[in-house]
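Re: the 467-residue chain
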Amino acid sequence: MENKKIDLIVIGAGPGGYVAAIRAAQLGMSVLCVDKRKTLGGTCLNVGCIPSKALLYSSHKYEEAEHHLENHGVKVGKVSLDLDKMMERKDKVVDQLTKGIEYLFQRNKLTHLVGDAHLLSPEMVLIKTEKGEERWQAKYILIATGSESLTLPGVSIDEKKVVSSTGALALKKVPEHMIVVGGGYIGLEMGSVWRRLGSKVTVVEFMDRIVPQMDYELGAALQKSLVKQGMDFKLSTKVKEIKEKKDKVSVEIESTSGTKETLEADVVLVATGRKPYTQGLGLEKIGVALNEKGFIMVNERYKTSASGIYAIGDCIPGPMLAHKAEEEGIAAVENMAGHYGHVNYGVIPAVIYTNPEVASVGKTEEELKTEARAYKVGKFPFLANSRAKAVGETDGFVKILADPATDLVLGVHIIGSDAGTLIAEAALAMEFSASSEDIARTCHAHPTLNEAVKEAALAVVGRAIHI
């Protein structure tokens, strides 16, 4: 079998992989990107970030028409749901974006193969495609294989009654009752979609709080809002067993206090996290080290323990976020090209696209307390923000944590309308080592939601104007 030669082989065409491939082409490399999936974009674009946000937006529109437009003087008749149409729109969005990446690959003269990749050596990859096997030799190999859903011991995911996030994105009808196992990003977002469309939603979470990685005050405020919307929570509770019946699913749960209960639902969404996808690549045979949880170990330049092999994204340690993978992909190929690629992990924002949205960047109060680091707090509620009042989205607040001696911004936490967009200002400020006074003295347009960020910065030193 003839060896085909190229500068870089990227294994995985998700946000990390395809962005890295494009950046490498910009730097003058010849690039092959290989992925099992026929469409580009990985889990995020095909069955993750993008379709879930499409459904979140559509379900928000449905709920708005059903319950909230009248508050704005807009009277509508009986609102009905066309779930097939909603799913069709979601699929169309995904299709348009995947085709957009295909265009970018063509424009940047990238080679794309659909198939299974197996590493034969640190510079040789065997790719099994529908047409047969190909051997490719490269100076560099970048592993960007992402992650896959975790499940519970003894629980089988059939994507019909017991589903992962993938199945939850493609249900054929609105379940009367959905049980969500896991109170993290995915569970709360998908639970929100089906709650808005008419499901009773019960969230079972092993921890004593939802979104435990977020600032505690934000998580508590989010739970309060979701309860108000009709979502039920059973915290400090573990799932003992999930059994499929004829037309229902039985879920046996037990609280930390020992109280046992059996719930019945039409659909159970298992959203207990994700694990790195590295099986079948042959990593151990060529000397690529993994940690005890199966993540690929890399140094600060994203090099693995095998010469010429790099890794990024969900398959290496760190937050499993698409934008984190993108930044790592760019940094990794820039390092290959002799540049200095770097990711500042202290300013990677995280967003939960519920309603209200929750967004965070930097340190939480709990982390600062654990580090015994002094801090001061500035808070401002959206209830006192003119734009929030005008549009009727007054839930939530902005909280800024700053160093009491230097005024350096240490963390920013937002819960409220469009928090995922608002957090960009905070991330930019922290990237440039801004103080809370820097934010406070920056002129913000009026009336905007961003003024709440300015007011929270003013509040750090007790100077907020509108409260």
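The chain has three domains: 3-149+275-343, 162-272, 347-459.
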